[in-house]
Design the sequence.
């Protein structure tokens, strides 16, 4: 298929074609979460064992994402895209047919390897299909799909698991995968610079990347449960990761066909854009993972009511994305990006003010505002970071960009959990100092609580009730501190926005 033929494929059809595989990959990162208890029960597995159904997918995903640009050049982008969708579809069937937890984890690894390249490759194809002046709208469409996945994933997982069984959360991928293959075969065509070529294979880079990023993802997934560097296993994997990634950088710098094109970081807009997106997802994942736990553990919300708090934020992002996509073409995207950073940082700070008397709508509105702020960040950041990258390097750029974005999310989750847990211990120590016979306020409250319990016929005193409330208060303060620190980390990247360059519009002849 020639480049001339490719020009006649409608860009909106291309957009639809690449959104289908992107959507199933993103949905699969969250659809399993709500079915984990059912999976654990089917195989009589413990909680820590069952979580590897999620972690194994993320591990293999993290390894493949930065390699996707190189793999596209090696096999040809269309062939790699269709091959990835086919393997994803087959491994989905195998996951649904798993006969043991070990087999399910193995098939999830395959699924993660297949799905890792779908998002960056689809993003590269989408950016090439649209002229640069319309990249904002293209990224708005991509962002709608990216936001829709996490919203619909848990909902679909719950409905399918309750109506049939957990196995159908994997089987449902099969018809969607077949549709994605059919559409890709018809409407995706490789430009001359993305066709398969003979080139040296960077075996050393592949091995170092797999070991380095795989070890790092393992550390982030299990660090808090293992007491971080108090665990010899975590220390060992940290050393392995640092050594492997250091040698990877050296190897990629001198290899003729590097698996990760580090020369892209010479571009200041690309480098600063990647850093901004890292801290954006650090903030996003750190906050949206903490909030439902705060609601369910401390406020006593059910999963359904916690979902009602979280859902409007995703819907707000969906509605805001198209508006921002149009604004980016009319207003300096750096101004929109800075506004989004301020909104998201301020919203996360507002979450640090939650207490045990906060009402439902006070939880909802910051989540809505966060979703709107994320829409204001995602589109201009992607546009400023990628729009001026040469088209022949777009696949490599999107793979690195998505790798850094995912690492930001993983580190944000690990950081937020750790800060919340450690600060809760700190506050518990400080609060318990007030539960002493030398404190007249405590003695008075204790006396009244004991009299009340005795009047109700309950034996004993109020020590248990006081301790339970102390734990709730200390955990609440721990969550508050985590939200506050995550907010500060995001506002600190405002300076990077000044470094980014607004891309020059392409000549019309170069748009296709």
Sequence:
């Amino acid at each position: 298929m020639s480049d001339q033929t490719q020009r006649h494929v409608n860009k909106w059809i291309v957009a639809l074609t690449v959104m289908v595989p992107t959507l199933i990959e993103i949905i699969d990162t969250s659809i399993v979460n709500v079915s984990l208890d059912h999976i654990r029960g089917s195989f009589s597995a413990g909680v820590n064992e069952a979580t590897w159904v999620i972690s194994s997918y993320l591990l293999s995903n993290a390894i493949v994402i930065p390699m996707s640009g190189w793999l596209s050049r090696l096999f040809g982008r269309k062939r790699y895209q269709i091959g990835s969708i086919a393997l994803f579809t087959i491994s989905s069937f195998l996951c649904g047919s798993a006969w043991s937890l070990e087999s399910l984890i193995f098939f999830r690894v395959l699924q993660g390897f297949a799905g890792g390249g779908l998002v960056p490759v689809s993003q590269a194809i989408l950016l090439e299909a649209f002229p640069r002046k319309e990249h904002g709208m293209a990224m708005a469409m991509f962002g709608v799909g990216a936001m829709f996945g996490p919203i619909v994933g848990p909902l679909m997982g719950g409905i399918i698991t309750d109506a049939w069984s957990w196995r159908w959360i994997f089987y449902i991928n099969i018809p969607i995968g077949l549709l994605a293959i059919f559409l890709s075969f018809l409407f995706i065509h490789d430009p001359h610079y993305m066709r398969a070529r003979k080139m040296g294979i960077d075996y050393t880079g592949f091995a170092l990347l797999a070991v380095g990023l795989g070890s790092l993802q393992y550390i982030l997934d299990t660090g808090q449960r293992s007491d971080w560097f108090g665990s010899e296993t975590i220390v060992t994997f940290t050393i392995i990761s640092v050594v492997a990634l250091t040698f990877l950088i050296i190897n990629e710098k001198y290899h003729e066909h590097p698996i990760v094109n580090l020369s892209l970081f010479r571009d200041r807009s690309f480098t600063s854009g990647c850093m901004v997106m890292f801290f954006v997802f650090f903030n996003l994942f750190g906050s949206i993972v903490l909030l439902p736990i705060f609601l369910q553990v401390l406020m006593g919300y059910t999963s359904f009511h916690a979902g009602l708090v979280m859902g409007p934020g995703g819907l707000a992002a969906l509605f805001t994305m198209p508006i921002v996509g149009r604004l980016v073409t009319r207003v300096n995207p750096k101004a929109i990006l800075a506004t989004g950073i301020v909104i998201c940082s301020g919203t996360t700070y507002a979450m640090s003010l939650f207490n045990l008397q906060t009402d439902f709508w006070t939880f909802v509105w910051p989540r809505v505002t966060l979703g709107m702020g994320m829409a204001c960040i995602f589109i201009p950041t992607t546009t400023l970071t990628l729009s001026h990258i040469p088209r022949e390097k777009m696949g490599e750029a999107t793979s690195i960009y998505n790798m850094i974005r995912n690492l930001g999310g993983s580190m944000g989750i690990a950081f937020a959990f750790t800060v919340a847990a450690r600060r809760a211990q700190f506050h518990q120590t400080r609060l318990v100092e007030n539960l002493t016979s030398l404190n007249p306020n405590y003695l008075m409250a204790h006396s009244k609580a004991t009299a009340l319990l005795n009047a109700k016929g309950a034996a004993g005193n109020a020590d248990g009730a006081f301790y339970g409330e102390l734990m709730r208060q200390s955990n609440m303060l721990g969550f508050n501190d985590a939200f506050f620190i995550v907010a500060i980390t995001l506002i600190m990247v405002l300076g990077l926005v000044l470094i980014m360059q607004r891309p020059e519009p392409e000549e019309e002849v170069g748009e296709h």
